[in-house]
Amino acid sequence: MKKLLLVLLVFGFIFQTSFATDGYYRHGYGIKYSALAGSGVAVSLSSLGAITNPASISNLNNGFEINVSYFSPERYYNVTGNPSGFPGTFGLMPGKVESEQTSFYFPTLGGNLKLTDKVTVALSLYGNGGMNSDYPVMTFGDPTSPGTGVNIEQMFGNLSIAYKFANNHSIGIAGIVGWQRFAAKGLIAFSNFSSDPANLTGNAWSTALGFGFKVGYQGKWMDDLSFGASYQSKIYMSEFDRYAGLFAQAGDFDVPANWQAGFAFTPGDWKFLVDVKQILYGDVKSIANQMLPKLQTALLGNEEGAGFGWKNILIFKYGIMFSGFCGWDLMAGYSFNQNPVTEENVMFNILAPAVIQNHLTFGVTKKLARSSELTVAFMYAFEQSLKGANQLEVPRQQSIEIGMKQWQVEVGYAFSSF
Q1: Which of 158, 168, 275, 332 is the most exposed place for a label (fewest CB within 10 A)?
Q2: How far is CA 135 from CA 150, 221, 310, 398, 402, in A?
Q3: 69-96, pLDDT tens digit by residue?
Q4: CB neighbours of 116 closer than 8 A, spacing ≥ 6?
Q5: pTM for this one?
Q6: Which letter does DSSP use for residue 377 in this model?
Q7: How many structural domains is the chain composed of?
Q8: Do 166 and 145 contact (CB within 8 A), yes or no?
Q9: Helix (H, G, I), strand (E, B) or coil at 52
Q10: Cβ neighbours for 302, distance < 8 A, ≥ 6 positions apart
């Protein structure tokens, strides 16, 4: 297990991990679950099911899995209307600007091992989420930087243990170690709004480490009907010291809690999956604090400093899988999530235009020799935009639109029964 952990850590940090789908969370963890739009909390498909529900590994043979994903988001903002030039206003230059960096790679890998007939453990390493924007202009008029943007990347490690307490019924718990890093540029125009202008923008990467846990249940209630549920605590992270003048609570950027529950109807070679998930963005001040009036009543970096104004979101996930086609598994899925961003907070969310709501997914698995398999999955997130007034322009004669679309290709290899 120590050797495996070392391999996972070295391999994981080679890759970039910035992406945004369900807000800034991934739409699914593990290639099969990804091909099912992130549904499947009630089924055991692979070692990486432990990321979503640690109880799921009770129903698997020993195994190991590795996935590599190519992720391509396209982000933009579009300002219409000329700035007023009135004293005390914060006008933006009109026009459409697209973010430059559109290619990211990230791994997902892990394995599970049965200790007894009732006890199973698993180790997983994965990119949890992230957000990137890289605009080639001085969006907020920062003469010290030729571009504007932010980059937050998150890598998580889970150690899970599951216990089968009855026939077809299991519970699980996972300890989570989180690592993240952040950098921002082009924000010096907000210095007068900051409690610590030296730690607001343009600094080197700032890193943070944190811990949390996840609990889960999975059980078969009828011959063809299973239920699963999991809850992940908030991941309490250390502060981004080099950006203590940007994020509320002196650089705090905890990972929000979430829960997921769902049913699986599994007649014959078919699996029909329905899940609901909630991400509690509203419980993290640096993410949830409103831009206004916070920007006028508290300095950036303070306890009540302005944030991105994100709200809690519900996500509905649907998947279908057919396993009776000559050694092939065929998968498809669709998910819809509420938009975490509101019209009143569009200006700050130029930096984080996570407005995607609809995902369509497909995947195929080919069974190979010696209990191994190869899987390919594809995700397309339909273009979504959100428009709102520039709240810092008087008489609010400017409109800001932010938008995004994405696609992702994954390749995964797994083997079991070693």
Answers
A1: 168
A2: 9, 51, 22, 19, 12
A3: 999 999 999 999 999 988 888 999 999 9
A4: none
A5: 0.94
A6: E
A7: 1
A8: no
A9: helix
A10: 195, 248, 249, 250
| Nearest residue to 399 (alpha-carbon basis) of 414, 386, 418, 382 | 386
Using DSSP's 3-state secondary structure scheme, residue 290 falls into coil
Calculate Rg over the CA atoms of the chain. 22
Kindly report the CATH number assigned to the domain that includes residue 300. Answer: 2.40.160.60
Q: Is it true that the peptide bond before 256 is cis, omega within 30 degrees of 0? A: no
Amino acid in position 333: G
Question: For 103-141, how does the pLDDT look when each residue is reduced to its tens digit (9 = 90+)?
Answer: 999 899 999 999 999 999 999 999 988 889 999 999 999
Q: Is there a contact between 258 and 314 (Cβ–Cβ < 8 Å)? A: no
CA 243, CA 301: separation in Å to the nearest integer?
8
Q: What's the rounded Cα separation, in Å, for the pair 29 and 157?
A: 13
Contact in structure between 58 and 65 (CB atoms under 8 Å): no
**Amino acid letter, residue 135:** Y
Cis-peptide into 395, omega within 30 deg:
yes
Closest CA to 239 of 157, 315, 321, 303: 303
Given a contact cutoff of 8 angstroms between Cβ atoms, the answer to whether 333 and 312 are in contact is no
Residues with Cβ within 8 Å of 49's Cβ and at least 6 positions away in sequence, in order, are: 30, 33, 40, 43, 56, 57, 60
Query: Residue 410's domain spans which residues?
Result: 2-416
C-alpha 327/C-alpha 92 separation (Å) is 57
